[in-house]
Amino acid sequence: MNTVLHQRITFNPRQCGGRPCIRGMRIRVTDILEMLAQGVAADEILADFPDLEPEDISACLHYAAKRADIARLAA
Fold it and tell me: Which domain of life is it from (predicted)?
């Protein structure tokens, strides 16, 4: 994963059940991805979450792409 984008995704077992969040905030990666999947524009997400930066959305997309590319063995 791009190091700069990777640093924007954080994991804290005491926050949001340990799910990946953005820069230590209580904004989960899945929340951003779900909004994008529902057709919410990045500009609208940024307006709704003023602490977010455009790079945070890129980091979420990059994280999802990397997770989708993990090979799994079928049992």
Answer: Bacteria
CA 58/CA 75 separation, integer angstroms: 33
Q: Retrieve residue 49's tokens.
A: 């979450």
Residue-wise pLDDT for 18-58, tens only, equals 999 999 999 999 999 999 999 999 999 999 999 999 999 99
**Strand pairing report for 21-22 and 9-10:** antiparallel
Counting DSSP H helices and E strands in the chain, the numbers are: 4, 2
**Spatial contact of 21 and 15, defined as CB atoms under 8 Å apart:** yes
pTM (predicted TM-score): 0.84
Q: Are 15 and 69 in contact (CB under 8 A)?
A: no
